[in-house]
């Protein structure tokens, strides 16, 4: 480890690892994603990791949501819905899904009270698009096609 070049490569690799997947995505692709890409292996893999760390505790390890997710809790709020094909996530455009993740559900559904936090100070845009890429990659083709048609009708936030 006395060779300066080896130390530099090891240090650079460690720095990239520590700085996280968003930077790696930017370096690989040359820019930030501005929409989900469920066919991108690297974006889906990054999204799966972020989902496991930030979302799975409420929405389920397998995107299954909380039990009885359609029944209100004693506090009047609904449990976390599934993000798999059995839920309603695919009924929302990419823009709406991004806004819900970034600013909370009330950003899209005014007055809706949810236990879901706004993630704009927790996750980068790359992280949010990656999570959406992962979620969308699990949907059957017909759900993805319907959701893509919704997304094409709305402008996605860069």
Write the layout of secondary structure elements.
Blueprint: H1 4-19, H2 21-29, H3 41-54, H4 56-59, H5 94-103, H6 125-137, H7 141-152
Helix pairs in contact: 3-6, 5-6
What features would you describe in this structure?
This protein has about 160 residues and is mostly helical. The protein has one domain: Orthogonal Bundle (Cytochrome Bc1 Complex, Chain D, domain 2). Helix content is about 50%, strand content about 0%. It starts with a helix and ends in a 6-residue tail after the last helix. About 25% of the residues are buried.
Summarize the structure.
The protein is mostly helical. It contains 7 helices and no strands.
Percent range for helical residues? 40-55%
In terms of structural class, how would the helical and strand content be classed?
Answer: mainly alpha
Radius of gyration, in Å, reads 18 Å
Corresponding CATH superfamily: Cytochrome c-like domain
Unreliable spans are 13-19
- The total of helices stands at 7
CATH topology: Cytochrome Bc1 Complex, Chain D, domain 2
CATH architecture: Orthogonal Bundle
The overall strand count is 0
Largest sheet: none
**Per the principal axes of the C-alpha atoms, what is the gross shape?**
globular
How far is the first residue's CA from the last residue's CA? 43 Å
User: Could you tell me the mean pLDDT?
Assistant: 83
Helices and strands, in order, run as HHHHHHH
